[in-house]
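We give its fold:
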Amino acid sequence: MTRQDLDIAYFRGRLEETRESLRSQIQQIEQDYDPESGAATEGYGVNNHPADDATDLFDRQRYRAIENDLSEELRAVEQALERIENGTYGICVVSGQPIPIERLEARPAAATLVEYQDEYDRQERGAGR
């Protein structure tokens, strides 16, 4: 069921732009806090005050959480691009009803109507992503 009322090229462009931005942000975090490079762990535990080590650990955990959030958003964007390719973009994956254009404007990667978002999130978590 293809939506005829949507400017698919417009939404594809927004999603592709968002995808590139997210990829760039993830790459930057990986470069800045890659344990293999030593950048995030330089001096960790060696002649450092325990409070400095705790701060370093907190920063690494915080950046890992940010990276996970960005990766989840990237996955949602890539799924939206797949829905564009298969002709189902703008259709709620739970109910099969059209997603309002206003919602897609606010969140181009939206897969559901607002009222089904919690249900969809639970299903996604349960599926192990």
The CA atoms of residues 105 and 121 lie 20 Å apart.
